[in-house]
Amino acid sequence: MELLEEHRCFEGWQQRWRHDSAVLKCPMTFSIFLPTPRTTPPPVLYWLSGLTCNDENFTTKAGAQRVASELGIVLVMPDTSPRGENVPNNESYDLGQGAGFYLNATEEPWADNFRMYDYINDELPALIADNFSISEKASIFGHSMGGHGALSIALKNPGRYCSVSAFAPIVNPTRVPWGQKAFAAYLGADQQKWHEWDSCWLLMQADTTQAIPVLIDQGDADQFLADQLQPAQFAEVARQKNWPLTLRVQPGYDHSYYFIESFIEDHLRFHAEHLA
User: Fold this and answer.
1) Is residue 184's pLDDT more than 90?
2) Could you name the active-site residues (predicted)?
3) Model-level pTM?
4) CATH number at residue 187
5) Over the stretch 82-101, which tens digit does the pLDDT of each residue have?
6) CB neighbour list of residue 158: distance below 8 Å, 6 or more residues apart
7) I want to staple 271 with a disulfide (CB 3.0 to 4.6 A). Which of 12, 66, 139, 162 is the partner?
8) d(CA 126, CA 120)
9) How many CA atoms lie less than 13 Å away from 96 in the CB half-sphere?
């Protein structure tokens, strides 16, 4: 690994690293916030960003480090997709580089590189565990496409995460334009194969004996709420399953990082409670 940046921040360290990913077959960057060392190794909270973002958006805009330092939580912010001259891309903002959708692609030209699920679920946690002092406890959260990633990854791995939360997540990608476009490209025309990456479908299949708490914040002035996000669909499945979900609709808030930074402390304290 190569250290690209390091900054003192709220008595901890904000760092940015580059490494060669065997899963994605390209160099990858991730950002990490390390709180002041304590007597016991700290838990890890993974953040997954949305479309067009990389590992730096949350680091520089969310204002999470102060509370993470207080709570003694390591924050890990990966990139949203593989990148590079030899990685397939598309001119659209919602497909290709910057739009990995946290799944494993099966279709050409994407299948060789776009395996973000394996990267987030396996390769990156192993890399973090090998190079930093952390506990085995982990939680996950994200925004928009990253909210889809956080929810679907948590639901696909019962027992792995202590909690999951999301800001304005794409909860039902098989039924909204962003998800349908990406899934058709990455997974092919067989829509039955799409289900295993759809949080609503995954929640319907989930074992309630392994339920973990879920927190979702959604702004009611979000320009993507009606067409792309539809958190009420996920909430209805959670109601039917008696799943521990808190869905908060925040009046006047949009899809931006101003929304995220307004409620990031709530999410960090929510995860800290369940990581304790």
Assistant:
1) yes
2) 144 (charge relay system), 222 (charge relay system), 255 (charge relay system)
3) 0.96
4) 3.40.50.1820
5) 999 999 999 999 999 999 99
6) 206, 207, 210, 212
7) 139
8) 10
9) 11
